[in-house]
């Protein structure tokens, strides 16, 4: 299996992810997505949006603000409960999350630990010029609450009937005690969340539905089945408001870890917001003529963790024969940052002209790259390493019959295709049928 060091090194070498503010020595747990990283990340977000909003008549989107009225965090319980137990080693001074230790001593040096104290994970800042208590606001630690406080706005303006969902993608911030494992746990990250509102009593059905939907999303995008598993939370582990919670876990280089959580949050959030805001947040059910607070199923995924899982799953250091090997990313074509490389076989004027024509035409549809430097073999390998699924080569036959070769990244086999057939050929392979 690939190591995290190999992934980090590829990401840096090929422009997927850089350390934040690197020229100043970086900033702990902060990362910047480079030119290829931002394309791949956008692809992941678009594919999530497509499967969960565009293709579903019962889910609509939202983009709420990061800064919210601080009362939201009182109502949600984040101000009083969103904390992890923290303990310091008295000997080496390292800081640990006490709930993640198997024995109560320092895992690094075996030293004695201080008593655990609770540490709130929300980032605090001030709004406006005066830095006093009344100006305190928080960076949201999840996108979910922006959805809950807009429940009625969305339901009424979109004239939605239960069951229906609201989806949102956006940045969240948590002052994690022990960030690490590259982009797996950072203090600034992106989430893709759905709050799916249902009639109480139908919640268990919809919980199962969403677990299935979400796992299938990863499968459809090429994640290997053996690297995904489901873990149900034990009763002792469940958040006090949740009736049930299931984690989708992925086999990361550091072991099985949470990729996405899918919780049955009951009517907890809307009830609390009703109580703290004094607004009536009940839903009127046309069929039963009753008013009630809906139950909520919440599939909550991390953009960055999905990104890491897709990379790890796709990475192969492949031995081709005795003297030859290549690094190849077997990314699903829909996830791959660059869809095709376009190459003139040789740097001859008539081949270059034709290749550029094809490249300029494909640009309208996808991110593609033109490359004329080095041997054709080297150019293919450069694209393999960033997961480009197709290599389109213009050779002398192209000038006679308007056909090109299209090389498949995984099999390295080539087919001859007419220039007019390039787009439909690629489209068929890039499009995901969710
Ligand atoms: P963990 O137990 O790993 O801290 P969590 O259970 O607190 O995660 P949730 O609150 O359920 O996480 O958040 C939903 C999703 O958001 C997670 O499954 C993960 O993909 C993502 N996520 C949460 N915290 C972070 C973080 N610090 N860095 C990157 N992604 C995160």
TrEMBL record:
<dbReference type="GO" id="GO:0005524">
    <property type="term" value="F:ATP binding"/>
</dbReference>
<protein>
    <recommendedName>
        <fullName>Glycine--tRNA ligase</fullName>
        <ecNumber>6.1.1.14</ecNumber>
    </recommendedName>
</protein>
<dbReference type="InterPro" id="IPR036621">
    <property type="entry name" value="Anticodon-bd_dom_sf"/>
</dbReference>
<feature type="binding site">
    <location>
        <begin position="298"/>
        <end position="302"/>
    </location>
    <ligand>
        <name>substrate</name>
    </ligand>
</feature>
<dbReference type="GO" id="GO:0016740">
    <property type="term" value="F:transferase activity"/>
</dbReference>
<dbReference type="InterPro" id="IPR002314">
    <property type="entry name" value="aa-tRNA-synt_IIb"/>
</dbReference>
<keyword id="KW-0547">Nucleotide-binding</keyword>
<feature type="domain" description="Aminoacyl-transfer RNA synthetases class-II family profile">
    <location>
        <begin position="5"/>
        <end position="337"/>
    </location>
</feature>
<dbReference type="InterPro" id="IPR033731">
    <property type="entry name" value="GlyRS-like_core"/>
</dbReference>
<feature type="binding site">
    <location>
        <begin position="184"/>
        <end position="189"/>
    </location>
    <ligand>
        <name>ATP</name>
    </ligand>
</feature>
<dbReference type="GO" id="GO:0006426">
    <property type="term" value="P:glycyl-tRNA aminoacylation"/>
</dbReference>
<dbReference type="GO" id="GO:0015966">
    <property type="term" value="P:diadenosine tetraphosphate biosynthetic process"/>
</dbReference>
<dbReference type="GO" id="GO:1990742">
    <property type="term" value="C:microvesicle"/>
</dbReference>
<dbReference type="Pfam" id="PF00587">
    <property type="entry name" value="tRNA-synt_2b"/>
</dbReference>
<dbReference type="GO" id="GO:0004820">
    <property type="term" value="F:glycine-tRNA ligase activity"/>
</dbReference>
<dbReference type="GO" id="GO:0140096">
    <property type="term" value="F:catalytic activity, acting on a protein"/>
</dbReference>
<dbReference type="Pfam" id="PF03129">
    <property type="entry name" value="HGTP_anticodon"/>
</dbReference>
<comment type="similarity">
    <text>Belongs to the class-II aminoacyl-tRNA synthetase family.</text>
</comment>
<dbReference type="InterPro" id="IPR022961">
    <property type="entry name" value="Gly_tRNA_ligase_bac"/>
</dbReference>
<dbReference type="InterPro" id="IPR027031">
    <property type="entry name" value="Gly-tRNA_synthase/POLG2"/>
</dbReference>
<feature type="binding site">
    <location>
        <position position="97"/>
    </location>
    <ligand>
        <name>substrate</name>
    </ligand>
</feature>
<dbReference type="InterPro" id="IPR004154">
    <property type="entry name" value="Anticodon-bd"/>
</dbReference>
<dbReference type="InterPro" id="IPR006195">
    <property type="entry name" value="aa-tRNA-synth_II"/>
</dbReference>
<keyword id="KW-0648">Protein biosynthesis</keyword>
<dbReference type="GO" id="GO:0005829">
    <property type="term" value="C:cytosol"/>
</dbReference>
<feature type="binding site">
    <location>
        <begin position="258"/>
        <end position="259"/>
    </location>
    <ligand>
        <name>ATP</name>
    </ligand>
</feature>
<feature type="binding site">
    <location>
        <begin position="189"/>
        <end position="193"/>
    </location>
    <ligand>
        <name>substrate</name>
    </ligand>
</feature>
<dbReference type="InterPro" id="IPR045864">
    <property type="entry name" value="aa-tRNA-synth_II/BPL/LPL"/>
</dbReference>
<feature type="binding site">
    <location>
        <position position="142"/>
    </location>
    <ligand>
        <name>substrate</name>
    </ligand>
</feature>
<comment type="subunit">
    <text>Homodimer.</text>
</comment>
<feature type="binding site">
    <location>
        <begin position="302"/>
        <end position="305"/>
    </location>
    <ligand>
        <name>ATP</name>
    </ligand>
</feature>
<keyword id="KW-0067">ATP-binding</keyword>
<dbReference type="GO" id="GO:0070062">
    <property type="term" value="C:extracellular exosome"/>
</dbReference>
<dbReference type="GO" id="GO:0004081">
    <property type="term" value="F:bis(5'-nucleosyl)-tetraphosphatase (asymmetrical) activity"/>
</dbReference>
<feature type="binding site">
    <location>
        <begin position="174"/>
        <end position="176"/>
    </location>
    <ligand>
        <name>ATP</name>
    </ligand>
</feature>
<keyword id="KW-0436">Ligase</keyword>
<keyword id="KW-0963">Cytoplasm</keyword>
<keyword id="KW-0030">Aminoacyl-tRNA synthetase</keyword>
<comment type="function">
    <text>Catalyzes the attachment of glycine to tRNA(Gly).</text>
</comment>
């Amino acid at each position: 299996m690939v190591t995290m060091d190999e992934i980090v090194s590829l990401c840096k070498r090929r422009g997927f992810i850089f350390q934040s503010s690197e020229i100043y020595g970086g900033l702990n747990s902060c990362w910047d997505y480079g030119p290829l990283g931002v394309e791949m990340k956008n692809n992941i977000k678009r594919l999530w949006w497509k499967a969960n909003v565009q293709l579903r008549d019962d889910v609509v989107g939202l983009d709420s603000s990061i800064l919210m009225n601080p009362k939201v965090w009182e109502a949600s319980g984040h101000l009083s409960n969103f904390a992890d137990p923290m303990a310091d080693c008295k000997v080496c001074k390292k800081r640990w999350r006490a709930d993640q230790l198997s024995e109560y001593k320092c895992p690094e040096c075996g030293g004695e630990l201080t008593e655990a104290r609770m540490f709130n994970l929300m980032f605090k800042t001030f709004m406006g010029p005066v830095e006093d208590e009344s100006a305190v606001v928080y960076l949201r630690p999840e996108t979910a609450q922006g959805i809950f406080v807009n429940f009625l706005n969305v339901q009424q303006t979109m004239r939605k009937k239960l069951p229906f969902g609201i989806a949102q993608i956006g940045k969240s911030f948590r002052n994690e005690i022990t960030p690490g494992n590259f982009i797996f746990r950072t203090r600034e990250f992106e989430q893709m969340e759905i709050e799916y509102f249902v009639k109480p009593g139908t919640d268990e059905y919809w919980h199962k539905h969403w677990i299935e939907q979400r796992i299938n999303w990863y499968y459809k995008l090429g994640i290997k089945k053996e690297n995904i598993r489901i873990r149900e939370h034990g009763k002792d582990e469940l958040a006090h408001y949740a009736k049930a919670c299931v984690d989708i876990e992925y086999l990361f280089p550091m072991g099985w870890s949470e990729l996405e959580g899918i919780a049955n949050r009951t009517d907890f959030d809307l009830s609390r917001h009703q109580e703290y805001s004094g607004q009536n947040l009940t839903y009127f059910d046309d069929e039963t003529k009753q008013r009630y607070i809906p139950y909520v199923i919440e599939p909550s995924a991390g953009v960055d963790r999905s990104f890491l899982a897709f990379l790890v799953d796709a990475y192969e250091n492949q031995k081709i024969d005795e003297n030859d090997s290549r690094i190849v990313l077997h990314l699903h074509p829909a996830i791959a940052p660059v869809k095709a490389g376009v190459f003139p076989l040789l740097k001859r004027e008539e081949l270059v002209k034709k290749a550029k024509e094809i490249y300029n035409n494909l640009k309208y549809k996808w991110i593609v790259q033109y490359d004329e430097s080095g041997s054709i073999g080297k150019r293919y390998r450069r694209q393999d390493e960033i997961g480009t699924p197709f290599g389109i080569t213009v050779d002398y036959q192209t000038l006679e019959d308007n056909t090109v070769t299209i090389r498949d990244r995984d099999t390295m086999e080539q087919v001859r295709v007419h220039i007019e057939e390039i787009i439909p050929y690629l489209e068929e392979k890039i499009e995901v049928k969710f």
